[in-house]
Amino acid sequence: MQLINIRMTISKKIFLPVQQDLLILNNNLKKMIGAKNPILYAAAEHLFEAGGKRIRPAIVLLISRITNEQKITLNEQRRLAEITEIIHTASLVHDDVVDECNTRRGVKTVHYTFSTKIAVLAGDFLFAQSSWYLANLNNLEVVKTISKVITDFAEGEIRQGTNNFNVKISIDDYIEKSFYKTASLIAASCKGAVMLNCKSKKTQNNFYQYGKHLGLAFQIIDDILDIIGSNKSLGKPAGSDLKNGNLTSPLIFALEENPELYQLVRREFQNNGDIEKAIAIIKETNGLKKAKDLAEEHIQAALHSLTNEYNCQASNTLKLISHYITNRIY
């Protein structure tokens, strides 16, 4: 009960310093998609209507304020926060197509609602829109930093796809793939926010490391939730990773303890009840505990990157976000 109360308290307070900024961001996202084709517009709008936690843009807005001498957020940084959410949303559309996922954030996915073709085009369109707004920031270094994320997404998808049902995948392989698919965007957008305040390379790197380790922890917790969570907590059906052959940290750790899992993975969970059996085996091992410990290591690394130089309410909120991420599994 105490853990539930802590989680509720964190959820209420977490975005308080940037609450008004996030309301403006939500309105701007719909204006920014601006597709002339009504079907494409409807598909893109459908994504933003579904909502989401807006953790990524919130972090950008917080870091923008933390590293600004006047503790204000520049218009360019607000736009960067919006670009970050558009890129993230575009990646989700393509992920849902690849994973054949029918629900996301409690609503039907774009490819399920419209078609796979429209979903792919909608994702491409959002990536193109983000590139357009990124170029209009008129900051070449920020453009270079953020645009690499789109390449990283593709790299992550390829690595994941080529390792489907591969029982030889290592934790290092898993972490590298997780960086490309999740942590890269958070790390790059954190760095971009600092760049727009013209801060030193050292400061840029500190916040890049914060974003990187936070992103890795976020992905690990997501993967734990795929084993123990509900559709509500995940925003997509539980067990999706196993079904698609995406071997994540809880399973990789569990494989070390129980060889019975090898048989289930090698036959690609084709028999009735294989997914449920695999989940039961994982829960009986130390796989979940080891995965949570790994997430906690990355949270500590993220917190270590936050120096006392920037001690303020926004900085404390970044720390709160870090703790919120690990508390999602309770």
Automatic annotation (TrEMBL):
Signal peptide: none
PROSITE patterns for this protein: POLYPRENYL_SYNTHASE_1, POLYPRENYL_SYNTHASE_2
Keyword Transferase: yes
Listed GO biological process terms: isoprenoid biosynthetic process; quinone biosynthetic process
Domain of life: Eukaryota
Keywords noted in UniProt: Chloroplast, Isoprene biosynthesis, Magnesium, Metal-binding, Plastid, Transferase
Listed cofactors: Mg(2+)
SUPFAM superfamilies in alphabetical order: Terpenoid synthases
GO MF annotation, one: prenyltransferase activity
Family: Belongs to the FPP/GGPP synthase family.
Designated name of the protein: Prenyl transferase
Species this chain originates from: Caulacanthus okamurae
